[in-house]
Design a protein that fits this description.
globular, eight-stranded mixed sheet, binds FE2/S2 (inorganic) cluster
Length: 376
Protein backbone atom coordinates (compact mmCIF):
# COMPACT_ATOMS: atom_id res chain seq x y z
CA UNK A 1 0.00 0.00 0.00
CA UNK A 2 1.14 3.54 -0.73
CA UNK A 3 0.20 6.77 1.01
CA UNK A 4 -1.42 9.39 -1.18
CA UNK A 5 -2.54 12.91 -0.28
CA UNK A 6 -4.64 14.95 -2.67
CA UNK A 7 -7.44 17.47 -2.72
CA UNK A 8 -10.85 16.19 -3.77
CA UNK A 9 -13.65 18.67 -4.27
CA UNK A 10 -11.81 21.21 -2.14
CA UNK A 11 -11.09 18.89 0.79
CA UNK A 12 -7.72 17.41 1.71
CA UNK A 13 -7.76 13.63 1.54
CA UNK A 14 -5.04 11.24 2.76
CA UNK A 15 -5.34 7.53 2.15
CA UNK A 16 -3.47 4.28 1.60
CA UNK A 17 -3.94 2.75 -1.85
CA UNK A 18 -2.58 -0.12 -3.87
CA UNK A 19 -0.24 1.29 -6.55
CA UNK A 20 -2.47 -0.30 -9.20
CA UNK A 21 -5.70 1.34 -7.96
CA UNK A 22 -6.99 3.73 -10.55
CA UNK A 23 -8.47 7.05 -9.59
CA UNK A 24 -12.01 6.05 -10.62
CA UNK A 25 -12.05 3.09 -8.22
CA UNK A 26 -10.42 5.18 -5.49
CA UNK A 27 -13.10 7.86 -5.80
CA UNK A 28 -15.98 5.43 -5.91
CA UNK A 29 -14.89 2.76 -3.46
CA UNK A 30 -12.77 4.58 -0.89
CA UNK A 31 -14.32 8.03 -0.98
CA UNK A 32 -17.84 6.88 -1.94
CA UNK A 33 -18.06 9.52 -4.66
CA UNK A 34 -20.15 7.36 -6.94
CA UNK A 35 -21.09 10.19 -9.30
CA UNK A 36 -17.99 9.25 -11.29
CA UNK A 37 -19.17 6.39 -13.49
CA UNK A 38 -17.01 3.62 -14.90
CA UNK A 39 -18.00 2.21 -18.29
CA UNK A 40 -15.29 0.83 -20.54
CA UNK A 41 -12.42 1.27 -18.05
CA UNK A 42 -9.90 1.70 -20.83
CA UNK A 43 -10.22 5.31 -21.84
CA UNK A 44 -12.80 5.14 -24.61
CA UNK A 45 -16.25 6.09 -23.27
CA UNK A 46 -15.52 9.20 -21.16
CA UNK A 47 -18.02 8.25 -18.44
CA UNK A 48 -15.27 8.49 -15.80
CA UNK A 49 -14.15 12.02 -16.73
CA UNK A 50 -13.09 14.22 -13.79
CA UNK A 51 -10.96 17.35 -13.55
CA UNK A 52 -7.34 16.89 -12.45
CA UNK A 53 -5.74 20.25 -11.74
CA UNK A 54 -8.50 21.82 -13.82
CA UNK A 55 -8.06 19.60 -16.89
CA UNK A 56 -10.56 16.90 -17.94
CA UNK A 57 -8.96 13.49 -17.49
CA UNK A 58 -9.99 9.83 -17.60
CA UNK A 59 -10.08 8.59 -14.02
CA UNK A 60 -10.00 4.99 -15.30
CA UNK A 61 -6.61 5.63 -16.94
CA UNK A 62 -5.08 7.53 -14.03
CA UNK A 63 -3.53 5.81 -11.04
CA UNK A 64 -4.64 7.26 -7.70
CA UNK A 65 -0.98 7.47 -6.61
CA UNK A 66 -0.22 9.59 -9.68
CA UNK A 67 -2.60 12.21 -8.23
CA UNK A 68 -0.50 12.76 -5.10
CA UNK A 69 -0.50 16.49 -4.42
CA UNK A 70 -3.00 17.24 -7.20
CA UNK A 71 -6.46 18.75 -7.17
CA UNK A 72 -9.28 16.45 -8.29
CA UNK A 73 -12.82 17.63 -8.91
CA UNK A 74 -15.64 15.17 -9.47
CA UNK A 75 -19.22 15.80 -10.52
CA UNK A 76 -20.13 16.14 -6.82
CA UNK A 77 -17.79 19.16 -6.59
CA UNK A 78 -19.77 21.50 -8.86
CA UNK A 79 -22.64 22.36 -6.51
CA UNK A 80 -21.87 26.08 -6.55
CA UNK A 81 -20.47 26.36 -10.04
CA UNK A 82 -22.53 28.70 -12.27
CA UNK A 83 -21.46 27.21 -15.65
CA UNK A 84 -22.30 23.73 -14.37
CA UNK A 85 -25.63 24.93 -13.00
CA UNK A 86 -26.46 26.36 -16.43
CA UNK A 87 -25.46 23.09 -18.11
CA UNK A 88 -27.51 20.95 -15.73
CA UNK A 89 -30.54 23.08 -16.41
CA UNK A 90 -29.91 22.96 -20.17
CA UNK A 91 -29.42 19.17 -20.23
CA UNK A 92 -32.73 18.82 -18.49
CA UNK A 93 -34.53 21.31 -20.74
CA UNK A 94 -33.08 19.93 -24.01
CA UNK A 95 -33.53 16.24 -23.10
CA UNK A 96 -29.76 15.75 -23.01
CA UNK A 97 -30.00 12.64 -20.85
CA UNK A 98 -32.03 9.49 -20.47
CA UNK A 99 -30.46 6.79 -18.29
CA UNK A 100 -27.88 9.27 -17.02
CA UNK A 101 -24.92 6.92 -17.11
CA UNK A 102 -22.82 9.11 -19.38
CA UNK A 103 -24.09 12.35 -17.83
CA UNK A 104 -21.44 13.10 -15.14
CA UNK A 105 -18.58 12.72 -17.63
CA UNK A 106 -20.60 14.47 -20.33
CA UNK A 107 -21.30 17.46 -18.05
CA UNK A 108 -17.64 17.82 -17.08
CA UNK A 109 -16.60 17.64 -20.74
CA UNK A 110 -19.35 20.12 -21.65
CA UNK A 111 -18.24 22.55 -18.96
CA UNK A 112 -14.70 22.37 -20.33
CA UNK A 113 -16.01 23.28 -23.80
CA UNK A 114 -18.08 26.15 -22.47
CA UNK A 115 -15.11 27.65 -20.60
CA UNK A 116 -12.37 26.90 -23.11
CA UNK A 117 -14.14 27.49 -26.43
CA UNK A 118 -16.61 30.34 -26.00
CA UNK A 119 -17.02 30.70 -29.78
CA UNK A 120 -17.54 27.01 -30.52
CA UNK A 121 -20.13 26.30 -33.20
CA UNK A 122 -22.18 23.10 -33.51
CA UNK A 123 -19.48 21.26 -35.43
CA UNK A 124 -16.85 22.17 -32.87
CA UNK A 125 -19.11 21.10 -30.01
CA UNK A 126 -19.64 17.73 -31.70
CA UNK A 127 -15.91 17.27 -32.28
CA UNK A 128 -15.08 18.18 -28.69
CA UNK A 129 -17.73 15.81 -27.34
CA UNK A 130 -16.57 12.96 -29.54
CA UNK A 131 -14.62 11.48 -26.64
CA UNK A 132 -17.79 10.97 -24.57
CA UNK A 133 -20.15 8.22 -25.64
CA UNK A 134 -23.88 8.15 -24.95
CA UNK A 135 -25.94 5.06 -25.75
CA UNK A 136 -29.33 6.66 -25.20
CA UNK A 137 -29.83 10.15 -26.56
CA UNK A 138 -28.47 10.24 -30.09
CA UNK A 139 -26.48 13.31 -28.93
CA UNK A 140 -28.84 15.93 -30.38
CA UNK A 141 -30.18 17.01 -26.99
CA UNK A 142 -26.68 17.09 -25.51
CA UNK A 143 -25.31 19.21 -28.35
CA UNK A 144 -28.30 21.55 -28.16
CA UNK A 145 -27.83 21.90 -24.40
CA UNK A 146 -24.16 22.85 -24.75
CA UNK A 147 -24.90 25.25 -27.58
CA UNK A 148 -27.65 26.92 -25.61
CA UNK A 149 -25.28 27.55 -22.69
CA UNK A 150 -22.64 28.90 -25.07
CA UNK A 151 -25.25 31.26 -26.50
CA UNK A 152 -26.33 32.37 -23.03
CA UNK A 153 -22.74 33.12 -22.13
CA UNK A 154 -22.14 35.04 -25.36
CA UNK A 155 -25.18 37.11 -24.48
CA UNK A 156 -23.66 37.76 -21.05
CA UNK A 157 -26.12 35.56 -19.21
CA UNK A 158 -23.69 33.54 -17.07
CA UNK A 159 -20.53 34.45 -15.15
CA UNK A 160 -17.08 34.74 -16.72
CA UNK A 161 -14.97 31.64 -17.31
CA UNK A 162 -12.82 30.22 -14.57
CA UNK A 163 -9.18 29.83 -15.59
CA UNK A 164 -8.14 26.19 -15.69
CA UNK A 165 -4.84 25.27 -14.02
CA UNK A 166 -2.37 23.32 -16.15
CA UNK A 167 -2.04 19.64 -15.41
CA UNK A 168 1.19 19.22 -13.49
CA UNK A 169 2.68 16.41 -15.49
CA UNK A 170 5.86 14.88 -14.09
CA UNK A 171 8.62 14.68 -16.68
CA UNK A 172 9.10 11.10 -17.83
CA UNK A 173 12.33 9.42 -16.78
CA UNK A 174 15.23 9.90 -19.16
CA UNK A 175 14.22 13.31 -20.46
CA UNK A 176 15.58 16.76 -19.75
CA UNK A 177 12.78 19.15 -18.85
CA UNK A 178 14.91 22.29 -18.84
CA UNK A 179 15.98 23.93 -22.07
CA UNK A 180 19.59 24.92 -22.64
CA UNK A 181 20.07 28.71 -22.72
CA UNK A 182 20.76 28.67 -26.45
CA UNK A 183 17.34 27.23 -27.23
CA UNK A 184 15.40 29.15 -24.59
CA UNK A 185 13.64 31.49 -27.05
CA UNK A 186 12.25 28.59 -29.03
CA UNK A 187 11.15 26.71 -25.94
CA UNK A 188 9.57 29.84 -24.55
CA UNK A 189 7.57 30.09 -27.77
CA UNK A 190 6.63 26.43 -27.45
CA UNK A 191 5.43 27.03 -23.91
CA UNK A 192 3.09 29.77 -25.13
CA UNK A 193 -0.57 28.77 -25.20
CA UNK A 194 -1.38 26.51 -28.13
CA UNK A 195 -3.77 27.85 -30.75
CA UNK A 196 -7.37 27.21 -29.84
CA UNK A 197 -8.19 23.51 -29.82
CA UNK A 198 -4.60 22.42 -30.50
CA UNK A 199 -2.34 20.50 -28.15
CA UNK A 200 1.27 21.56 -27.72
CA UNK A 201 4.29 20.08 -26.03
CA UNK A 202 8.01 20.75 -26.14
CA UNK A 203 10.94 18.51 -25.33
CA UNK A 204 14.72 18.54 -25.59
CA UNK A 205 17.18 15.68 -25.82
CA UNK A 206 20.86 15.14 -26.57
CA UNK A 207 22.35 13.06 -29.37
CA UNK A 208 25.95 11.95 -28.86
CA UNK A 209 27.11 13.20 -32.26
CA UNK A 210 28.20 16.67 -33.46
CA UNK A 211 25.55 18.99 -34.94
CA UNK A 212 26.77 18.53 -38.54
CA UNK A 213 26.21 14.76 -38.32
CA UNK A 214 22.79 15.12 -36.68
CA UNK A 215 21.72 17.85 -39.11
CA UNK A 216 22.60 15.60 -42.05
CA UNK A 217 20.77 12.64 -40.49
CA UNK A 218 17.60 14.71 -40.04
CA UNK A 219 17.65 15.50 -43.78
CA UNK A 220 17.69 11.77 -44.52
CA UNK A 221 13.94 11.10 -44.37
CA UNK A 222 14.19 7.28 -44.56
CA UNK A 223 16.49 7.38 -41.51
CA UNK A 224 14.10 9.69 -39.66
CA UNK A 225 11.13 7.42 -40.48
CA UNK A 226 13.08 4.34 -39.39
CA UNK A 227 13.66 5.93 -35.98
CA UNK A 228 10.07 7.07 -35.43
CA UNK A 229 7.85 4.40 -33.86
CA UNK A 230 4.93 3.46 -36.09
CA UNK A 231 6.10 5.54 -39.07
CA UNK A 232 6.16 4.26 -42.64
CA UNK A 233 7.60 6.40 -45.44
CA UNK A 234 5.97 5.80 -48.82
CA UNK A 235 7.29 8.70 -50.95
CA UNK A 236 9.60 11.64 -50.54
CA UNK A 237 11.68 14.26 -52.32
CA UNK A 238 13.94 16.95 -50.87
CA UNK A 239 11.08 18.91 -49.26
CA UNK A 240 8.01 16.72 -48.99
CA UNK A 241 7.25 13.36 -47.43
CA UNK A 242 4.27 11.06 -47.69
CA UNK A 243 3.59 8.13 -45.46
CA UNK A 244 1.56 6.53 -42.70
CA UNK A 245 1.66 6.54 -38.95
CA UNK A 246 0.32 3.38 -37.34
CA UNK A 247 -1.12 3.87 -33.86
CA UNK A 248 -2.76 1.40 -31.50
CA UNK A 249 -4.89 2.87 -28.73
CA UNK A 250 -6.48 0.17 -26.60
CA UNK A 251 -9.11 -1.49 -28.84
CA UNK A 252 -8.63 1.06 -31.64
CA UNK A 253 -6.07 0.88 -34.37
CA UNK A 254 -5.43 3.75 -36.72
CA UNK A 255 -3.19 4.27 -39.72
CA UNK A 256 -2.92 7.98 -40.44
CA UNK A 257 -2.02 8.51 -44.08
CA UNK A 258 -0.74 11.97 -44.88
CA UNK A 259 1.96 14.24 -46.14
CA UNK A 260 4.21 16.97 -44.78
CA UNK A 261 6.32 19.80 -46.10
CA UNK A 262 9.74 20.23 -44.52
CA UNK A 263 11.63 23.54 -44.36
CA UNK A 264 15.22 23.62 -43.12
CA UNK A 265 17.54 26.55 -42.48
CA UNK A 266 21.19 25.48 -42.66
CA UNK A 267 22.40 28.73 -41.06
CA UNK A 268 20.40 28.47 -37.84
CA UNK A 269 20.08 24.65 -37.83
CA UNK A 270 16.34 24.94 -37.45
CA UNK A 271 13.63 23.09 -39.28
CA UNK A 272 9.86 22.85 -39.46
CA UNK A 273 7.53 20.15 -40.69
CA UNK A 274 3.89 20.96 -41.41
CA UNK A 275 1.59 18.13 -42.26
CA UNK A 276 -1.91 16.70 -42.24
CA UNK A 277 -3.37 13.25 -42.43
CA UNK A 278 -6.37 11.09 -41.73
CA UNK A 279 -7.41 7.60 -40.77
CA UNK A 280 -10.43 6.37 -42.69
CA UNK A 281 -11.22 3.51 -40.33
CA UNK A 282 -11.61 5.67 -37.23
CA UNK A 283 -12.68 8.76 -39.21
CA UNK A 284 -10.06 10.79 -37.35
CA UNK A 285 -8.06 13.60 -38.90
CA UNK A 286 -5.01 15.44 -37.69
CA UNK A 287 -2.92 18.48 -38.52
CA UNK A 288 0.49 18.92 -36.96
CA UNK A 289 3.38 21.31 -36.92
CA UNK A 290 6.82 20.36 -35.62
CA UNK A 291 9.72 22.75 -35.08
CA UNK A 292 13.24 21.74 -34.11
CA UNK A 293 16.53 23.45 -33.42
CA UNK A 294 20.01 21.99 -33.00
CA UNK A 295 22.68 23.43 -30.71
CA UNK A 296 26.08 22.13 -29.61
CA UNK A 297 26.30 20.51 -26.23
CA UNK A 298 29.80 19.32 -25.38
CA UNK A 299 30.75 16.86 -28.11
CA UNK A 300 27.09 16.20 -28.84
CA UNK A 301 23.99 17.99 -30.05
CA UNK A 302 20.95 19.12 -28.15
CA UNK A 303 17.73 19.01 -30.14
CA UNK A 304 14.82 21.14 -28.94
CA UNK A 305 11.52 20.01 -30.41
CA UNK A 306 8.12 21.69 -30.19
CA UNK A 307 5.06 19.89 -31.49
CA UNK A 308 1.58 21.29 -31.94
CA UNK A 309 -1.28 19.16 -33.24
CA UNK A 310 -5.00 19.13 -33.71
CA UNK A 311 -6.82 15.80 -33.64
CA UNK A 312 -10.43 15.50 -34.71
CA UNK A 313 -12.79 12.53 -34.73
CA UNK A 314 -13.21 9.62 -32.34
CA UNK A 315 -9.52 9.66 -31.39
CA UNK A 316 -9.76 13.33 -30.35
CA UNK A 317 -10.61 12.16 -26.84
CA UNK A 318 -6.94 11.31 -26.37
CA UNK A 319 -5.64 14.73 -27.32
CA UNK A 320 -6.63 16.83 -24.34
CA UNK A 321 -5.23 15.08 -21.31
CA UNK A 322 -1.80 15.48 -19.75
CA UNK A 323 -1.23 11.86 -20.71
CA UNK A 324 -1.50 12.73 -24.41
CA UNK A 325 1.33 15.19 -23.99
CA UNK A 326 3.28 12.67 -21.98
CA UNK A 327 2.72 10.14 -24.74
CA UNK A 328 4.11 12.66 -27.23
CA UNK A 329 7.18 13.05 -25.05
CA UNK A 330 7.58 9.28 -24.92
CA UNK A 331 7.49 9.13 -28.72
CA UNK A 332 10.18 11.81 -28.90
CA UNK A 333 12.19 9.77 -26.37
CA UNK A 334 11.95 6.60 -28.44
CA UNK A 335 12.96 8.58 -31.51
CA UNK A 336 15.99 10.00 -29.65
CA UNK A 337 17.07 6.55 -28.46
CA UNK A 338 16.75 5.13 -31.96
CA UNK A 339 18.63 8.03 -33.59
CA UNK A 340 21.39 7.79 -31.01
CA UNK A 341 21.71 4.04 -31.58
CA UNK A 342 21.67 4.43 -35.33
CA UNK A 343 24.27 7.22 -35.47
CA UNK A 344 26.57 5.34 -33.16
CA UNK A 345 26.54 2.36 -35.53
CA UNK A 346 23.84 0.24 -33.89
CA UNK A 347 20.34 -0.55 -35.12
CA UNK A 348 17.12 0.84 -33.66
CA UNK A 349 17.09 0.68 -29.85
CA UNK A 350 13.32 0.16 -29.90
CA UNK A 351 11.49 -1.64 -32.72
CA UNK A 352 9.77 1.16 -34.66
CA UNK A 353 7.40 -1.02 -36.69
CA UNK A 354 4.27 -0.36 -34.63
CA UNK A 355 3.46 2.44 -32.22
CA UNK A 356 1.43 1.04 -29.37
CA UNK A 357 0.19 4.21 -27.75
CA UNK A 358 -1.38 2.08 -25.05
CA UNK A 359 1.99 0.56 -24.21
CA UNK A 360 3.68 3.96 -24.22
CA UNK A 361 0.93 5.45 -22.08
CA UNK A 362 1.34 2.65 -19.57
CA UNK A 363 5.10 3.14 -19.63
CA UNK A 364 4.50 6.82 -18.92
CA UNK A 365 2.11 6.04 -16.07
CA UNK A 366 4.50 3.45 -14.68
CA UNK A 367 7.37 5.94 -14.81
CA UNK A 368 5.27 8.33 -12.72
CA UNK A 369 4.39 5.61 -10.24
CA UNK A 370 8.03 4.54 -9.93
CA UNK A 371 9.07 8.14 -9.36
CA UNK A 372 6.43 8.49 -6.67
CA UNK A 373 7.53 5.28 -4.99
CA UNK A 374 11.20 6.17 -5.26
CA UNK A 375 11.89 3.06 -7.40
CA UNK A 376 14.41 2.91 -10.21
S1 LIG B 1 -14.60 4.31 -17.97
FE1 LIG B 1 -12.97 5.67 -18.34
S2 LIG B 1 -13.17 6.20 -20.41
FE2 LIG B 1 -14.68 4.64 -20.11
S1 LIG C 1 -28.04 9.10 -21.16
FE1 LIG C 1 -27.77 6.94 -21.15
S2 LIG C 1 -25.76 6.71 -21.85
FE2 LIG C 1 -26.11 8.81 -22.12
Amino acid sequence: MTAVALTVNGERVSAEVEPRTHLGDFLREQLRLTGTHLGCEHGVCGACTVLIDGQPARSCLTFAVACDGLDVRTIEGFEDDPPMAALREAFSREHGLQCGFCTPGMLIAARDIVLRLPDADERRVRVELSGNLCRCTGYLGIVNAVRSVLEQRRAGGTPAPVAAAALAAAAPAGFTPAAAPAVAPMVAAADAPARQGWTRFAETFVIAQPPAVVWAALADFPVVAACLPGAELTEHDARTVKGRLHVKLGPMQAAFAGSAVIERDDASLTGTAKGAGGDNASRSRTRAELTYRLTSEGAGTRIAVAVEYDLQGPLAQFSRSGLAQELGRRIVGVFAANLNARLSGGGAAVAPAALSAGRLVWQAIWARVKALLGLR
